[in-house]
Design brief:
This protein has 158 residues and is mostly helical. It is built from 3 helices and no strands. The protein has helices spanning 2-51, 67-121, 126-157.
């Protein structure tokens, strides 16, 4: 009888120990899943914002000193660099388009003047020159429209 009671007590203790161990393992797994899930969700959300053009997005600070912290630092550093490069590109493209407007305007004016002079002469030898000037005038006008579009895009980005 006492061996039976001992075996029953031992089986009960083992069953209880296994139940507690499984419950603790499940609780630990759930806590890890919540912590890791929250951190990875923040990183993924920031990456999505960056992909949509929000270069001011950053992964929130969480000084845990783990691999996620290292990833956060790298992503935020990358976002800073992208933001800086986009700003520089916008500035350079706007300045370039603005600086090219004056030479294109002078070119257009010179072509217009030449067209008036050639057209006023009216002789047959000037027909080819007149056609060439008209083609150059059309090209200059197309270039002017492209520059205006570039400037408008720069204004809208700003």
């Amino acid at each position: 009888m006492s061996t039976y009671n001992f075996n029953l007590a031992f089986a009960t203790a083992i069953g209880l120990t296994i139940s507690v161990a499984v419950a603790l393992a499940m609780l630990s797994a759930l806590l890890l899943w919540l912590v890791i899930g929250r951190r990875t969700h923040q990183i993924a959300q920031t990456a999505a914002e960056l992909a949509q053009g929000n270069f001011g997005a950053r992964v929130p600070e969480a000084e845990a000193g783990d691999g996620f912290d290292h990833l956060r630092i790298q992503i935020n550093s990358m976002a800073e660099r992208i933001d800086s490069l986009v700003s520089q590109l916008s500035s350079v493209s706007g300045a370039l388009a603005h600086d090219l407007r004056s030479p294109v305007a002078r070119l257009t004016a010179a072509i217009d003047t030449a067209l008036v002079v050639v057209d006023g002469q009216g002789a047959g030898g000037t027909t080819r020159a007149l056609e060439a000037l008209q083609a150059a005038r059309a090209d200059a006008e197309g270039l002017r429209r492209m520059l205006e579009t570039a400037l408008e895009i720069t204004r809208l980005e700003g």
